[in-house]
Design a protein that fits this description.
8 strands; alpha/beta; 4-stranded parallel beta sheet
């Protein structure tokens, strides 16, 4: 079983009510790679103590803190080499403590100026610009990452028409990520209830198209009814289409292999308390580093 959570730190911290404020990626960036790894370790220990085995982090979008795309300070910065280093340190920290991490949001939301939670963004960079900036962290870290999450943005340079989110693009998921970058781990959709893709998900249709594109694990993060509808749509399509049934079995196999490699354990309150203390200490250190002149 995979039990997953979004625990990045900063604005995206599902543990905040238990551990208090945690640093943003921008604040961690100022603190340096060693603190990023320690923060990853403490995050992993806290999550494992309450039963999780997969964290949908780190963000590797290359982005400034003033961006209007829903990323901003969730990014480690505007230098793709630096983003690769710091996100890699966080990812290594998770791994060393037995927790699977997930790079997001492939192939990169940094250049977009619309929040995909609301509507479909378009990334206007050329293929060369995407290769040199947005894709660099994914190429650097793909061999170390158990999972990659696909963005809900349109990339005309990669898949020109029609304007589809990358989650539904076989050219981007199957062609670019799987074949050209060579990633063989778990591919996760972003939340299929987000504004950028929800209009395409009538009766669970986006779930089918995401699986066809090459995604293995589909996220529905708010409505169990929509998730059940998508499951029924996938089952009906598999019953009618043997090729789709094989693709669905392949996706399920990757989910099972990931869960077997990164097993979840029962909650352990005694282990959570010291992990919480470490997170609080590292959070104070990271914020202090960010404010240092």
């Amino acid at each position: 079983t995979l039990l997953a959570i979004d625990q990045e730190g900063g604005r995206v911290s599902r543990l905040e009510s238990w551990v208090g404020p945690t640093p943003t990626a921008a604040e961690l960036s100022a603190a340096g790679a060693a603190v990023c790894e320690q923060f990853g370790r403490a995050t992993a220990r806290a999550l494992r103590a309450i039963g999780f085995n997969l964290d949908f982090a780190p963000v590797v979008d290359v982005c400034g803190t003033e961006a209007l795309n829903g990323i901003a300070d969730r990014s480690f910065g505007t230098d793709p080499e630096r983003v690769s280093e710091l996100a890699g340190s966080f990812l290594d920290g998770l791994r060393e403590e037995g927790l699977a991490g997930c790079l997001k949001h492939f192939p990169g939301l940094g250049e977009t100026c619309v929040d995909s939670h609301v509507e479909l963004p378009t990334a206007h960079r050329s293929r060369r610009q995407l290769d040199e900036v947005e894709l660099l962290p994914f190429r650097r870290l793909a061999s170390r990452a158990p999972a990659v999450m696909i963005s809900h943005a349109h990339y005309p340079a990669l898949d020109p028409a029609p304007p589809l989110p990358a989650t539904l693009s076989a050219e981007i998921v199957g062609g670019l990520l799987r074949e050209r970058i060579g990633f063989d781990g778990l591919v996760v959709s972003d939340d299929l209830e987000m504004g950028a893709v929800a209009p395409l998900d009538e009766d669970g249709e986006a779930a089918v198209r995401s699986i066809e594109a090459g995604c293995d694990l589909l996220l529905y993060c708010a409505s169990l009814q929509r998730a059940a509808c998508a499951r029924a749509k996938l089952a009906a399509r598999a019953a009618a289409d043997p090729a789709f049934a094989i693709r669905l079995q392949e996706a399920a196999g990757r989910v099972r292999r990931t869960a077997a490699r990164w097993p979840a354990f029962p909650g352990n309150a005694a282990a959570f308390d010291p992990a919480r203390s470490d997170l609080q200490r590292l959070s104070r250190a990271a914020v202090s580093s960010d404010r240092r002149p």
